[in-house]
Structure formats: C-alpha cells, structure tokens
Amino acid sequence: MEAEELRVGFVGAGRMAGGLGRGLLRAGKVPASNIIVSAPSDRNLAEWREWGCRTTHCNLEVLQESTVVFLATKPHVLPTVLQELRPAVTSQHLLISLAAGVTLQKLQRLLPTGTKVLRLMPNLPCVLQVGAAVFSRGTGVGDGDAALLQSLLSPCGLCEEVPEPYINIHTGLSGSGVAYVYLFAEAMAEGAVKMGMPMGLANKIAAQTLLGAAKMLLETGEHPAKLRGDVCTPGGTTIHGLYQLEKGALRATVMNAVQAATERACEMGED
Ligand SMILES: NC(=O)C1=CN([C@@H]2O[C@H](COP(=O)(O)OP(=O)(O)OC[C@H]3O[C@@H](n4cnc5c(N)ncnc54)[C@H](OP(=O)(O)O)[C@@H]3O)[C@@H](O)[C@H]2O)C=CC1
Ligand SMILES: O=C(O)[C@@H]1CCC=N1
C-alpha cells in the first residue's frame, strides 16, 4: 500500500506515540492528514495538531478512521481501552501494541478472534531516526503485515522481528536502556564538573563521547572489549579510570539493571 493511502491511528498521544509519530512524519512516510490520534485530554493532542494530524477524544473514531492502529497507552490502561475498542475492530485492522509487558496472548484474548495484532517495543530515539525496535506477530498476521510495519518504521532506525520472549529482554536492554545511558552520561559529565570543567561543556562532551563510541561499535562491528583495549595505554589514564569502574561493579550493576527491567516487564504481563 502506498504511504498516501495508508491511514494510521494512535490510541494514546504521549511520549512514545509522539516519538513514533514524529519519526514517521519526518521521514515523510505518511502524510500528517492521514494520521489520527486520540487521548482523553488535550495535554498532548495540541502538539499533534501543530504537526497537521487530526485529533479526537474518542478512541473509537481512531479505529473507524484508520487501518493501522498503534496502541500507545500505559500498559495498565490497555485492557480497558481494548474493551472499548473491541466492537469496532474488523479483520481489516492491523493493531500494534507498544505496551511494555503485555503479551500477544493477552492482547489476543482481549480482542475479537482473528484480529491481526503485533507487539512492538520501540525506544524514544526513534524520533531522531536512530531508534531500536523489535516486534513479534500474533496468530494470523501474515508476511505482508509484518513487512508493512517494518516499512513504516524503517525511517525510525533498527526494526527487527524477534521471537516474543526477546521483547521483554529488549525492553530491559533498550526501551529502558536509553535511561541508563542518560544516567551514565550525567555521571560522566559530573565527574568532569568535579574536576573543574563547566557543566554545559561537560554535558556536550559526554554526549559526543557516547555518540562516537556507539558509532565505532556499530560501524567497526568489533567486540566492545577490543575497542576498549584500543583506548588503553599500559599504565596510562584509561586503565586507571576503568579500574575504578570495575571496583564499583559497573558491569554487574548494569547487567542487574537489564535483568531487573526485563523481570519487571514479565511481571507486568502477569497483571
Ligand atoms: N516512554 C518510553 O520510552 C517507552 C514507552 N513504551 C510504551 O509506550 C506506552 C506509552 O508510554 P508513554 O508514551 O511513555 O506514556 P505517556 O504517559 O507519555 O502517554 C500515555 C498516553 O495515553 C493516553 N491515555 C491515557 N488513558 C487513555 C485512554 N483511556 N484512552 C486513550 N488514551 C489514553 C494519555 O492521555 P493524555 O495525553 O490525556 O495524558 C497519553 O497521551 C506504554 O505502554 C509504554 O510501556 C515503550 C517503549 C518505550
Ligand atoms: O518504563 C517503562 O515501563 C517503559 C517501557 C520501556 C521504556 N519505558
């Protein structure tokens, strides 16, 4: 289907919906006039109107006006929203849930039999087209529907189909992982401030350091340990810094963070 013909809806207009919406718009994937968004308040909708999208307080209207519908409410709200949407769902719709933890089995249970539903876990950098998203498909979702989602999200960054158990792991690694990186960036900059560098400059350099390191990882394809070794002069500065990170158990702490967030996603699926 051509982008101009595709009608895309968002139920929920918050940060993640906004990230995906702006990613799609910036890439010219779907014209703004073909996007309709719903939320109970105007808090987030005003911004969507500025982008040229249509907005409503009625979730059913989104379903009636679109074929591809992103379900972008918080996970605990989703069952109520699906109960409301259920009577208007048809076999023409492709529903895509962003809700952390909410399994395909649960989504399928809450929707009419045969509904085409996908489970997507994006992350916020998709707004700058450097996101990392994974998805799994529910029963009855064909290759064409999966390809449509991949094509829609292709301008937003990486988008891979994975076995469903990987989605909670991706949530712990990447959906939430963005926040761990901000914490690390803040700590790096504060270290520099402690040593006398102005905060604005320290923040800028910390961000550029993360960007450069991430690009090196992606573009060389090298293992992180190899690239780390390249920075370390024997007896030099880096090994002294790394020793402090190892003493502070950074590696185990980060592994624990990914585990805790993954386990929380699994728990949220049980609610
Ligand atoms: N933030 C992130 O980095 C990521 C989030 N996600 C997932 O995305 C989903 C949304 O999270 P996020 O964008 O952060 O949350 P936000 O709180 O920013 O947005 C939630 C949106 O849902 C709307 N909403 C609340 N109740 C209803 C309802 N009954 N019907 C329709 N809309 C409703 C809110 O309305 P109003 O505008 O009136 O407040 C708001 O627009 C979650 O399921 C989360 O797990 C996934 C990956 C990353
Ligand atoms: O914190 C959360 O639950 C959501 C899911 C991934 C990022 N934010």
TrEMBL record:
Q: What functional role does this protein have? A: Oxidoreductase that catalyzes the last step in proline biosynthesis, which corresponds to the reduction of pyrroline-5-carboxylate (P5C) to L-proline using NAD(P)H. Proline is synthesized from either glutamate or ornithine; both are converted to P5C, and then to proline via pyrroline-5-carboxylate reductases (PYCRs). PYCR3 is exclusively linked to the biosynthesis of proline from ornithine.
Could you say which residues bind NADP(+) here? A72, T73, K74, P75
Q: Does the keyword Plastid apply?
A: no
One short Pfam family name for this protein? Answer: F420_oxidored
Relate the assembly described in the record.
Homodecamer; composed of 5 homodimers.
* InterPro entries with a match to the protein in the record: 6-PGluconate_DH-like_C_sf, NAD(P)-bd_dom_sf, P5C_Rdtase_cat_N, P5CR-like_CS, P5CR_dimer, Pyrroline-COOH_reductase
Q: Which GO terms describe its molecular function?
A: pyrroline-5-carboxylate reductase activity
Pathway entry: Amino-acid biosynthesis; L-proline biosynthesis; L-proline from L-glutamate 5-semialdehyde: step 1/1
Task: Write out the residues that bind NADPH.
Answer: N59
* GO biological process annotation, one example: L-proline biosynthetic process
| Stretches assigned to the Pyrroline-5-carboxylate reductase catalytic N-terminal domain | 7-101
Name assigned to this protein: Pyrroline-5-carboxylate reductase
Limits of the Pyrroline-5-carboxylate reductase dimerisation domain? 164-268
Reaction catalyzed? L-proline + NADP(+) = (S)-1-pyrroline-5-carboxylate + NADPH + 2 H(+); L-proline + NAD(+) = (S)-1-pyrroline-5-carboxylate + NADH + 2 H(+)
